Amino acid sequence: MPFFSRKGLWQYMGRSRQGFTLIEVVVSLVLLGILTAVAGMGIVSGVRAYLSVEENTEIAQKAQFALIRMSRELMELTAVSAAEASRVVFTNPSGTFTLGFHDGAVRLAQGSVTLDTASPVLTDGVAGLVLTYGTVDGDGNQGAWTQGNSIEDLIYMDLRLDMARSGSAAIRFPTRVHMRNTRNYGGAPPPTSTPTVSYCFITSLGQQKMDGWALFIPAAVGASVWGWLGLLLIRRSRNG
After folding, report:
1. Positive or negative, the Cα torsion across 11, 12, 18, 24?
2. What torsion, rounded to 10 degrees, do the Cα atoms 62, 65, 66, 67 define?
């Protein structure tokens, strides 16, 4: 009767009364170990690559969102009351805000305040924030802008957001913001009255990552099944 016929496998297993020999057990264990090792290495490598791509994508999305929000707030500024390397206090048509880095996060708070852990988080997972203030003279030469200079001389701000990444160096995301409400070159004068707006705050926080065991366990079970099928085939060939 064929081994894989309708009832061949079950009749064969029920009819056979012989046990497994030591050689059969050893060979089956070796095959099972090889299959499990190969499947495990392939799946672990794939899971690591997937998690790395997922982490990089999440970091890029968070950085892009944070830079867009910071650019929109700074682009409309009409005054700067504090210009530091990782913190700036500015005024735009929506009011006065404090933007800066504190305790692993970029924070944006209303008013001129000292940022702390209670300040609203714009995005987390941040390794650092670098702010550079620039000006351009009549000949097109770029230079540094300091707080004592006229606000009309503040032409642009360079923002560099350093996002932390597990197991490697931080990823840098730079951008440049050109002011348009400071009466500078190409800028427009700020509005004479403050518009009535609703302050909406949106934050970007980390997401839970997928567990690699969710893929490894089914592969290990599949390798075990193939190992026992190999054992049955060896026993079948031995019994003729």
Report:
1. negative
2. 120
For residues 187 and 38, what is the distance between their CA atoms, to the nearest angstrom? 63
Q: Which amino acid is at 40?
A: G
- 86-126 per-position pLDDT tens digit: 999 999 988 999 999 999 999 999 999 999 999 999 999 99
Closest CA to 115 of 91, 99, 92, 131: 99
Q: How far is it, in rounded angstroms, from Cα 119 to Cα 198?
A: 19
**What pairs with residue 128 in β-bridges?**
162
Assigned token pair, 97: 């805000």
- Please name every residue paired with 30 in a beta bridge, in sequence order, or none if there are none: none
Helix crossing, 213-239 with 22-75: angle to 10°? 160
Q: Residue 158: how many CB atoms within 10 A of its CB?
A: 13
Residue position matching structure tokens 């029920």: 14
Q: Could you tell me the pTM of the whole model?
A: 0.62
**Most confidently modeled of 134-138, 158-162, 179-183, 205-209?**
158-162
CA nearest 179: which of 195, 157, 198?
A: 157
Helix (H) or strand (E) holding 3: none
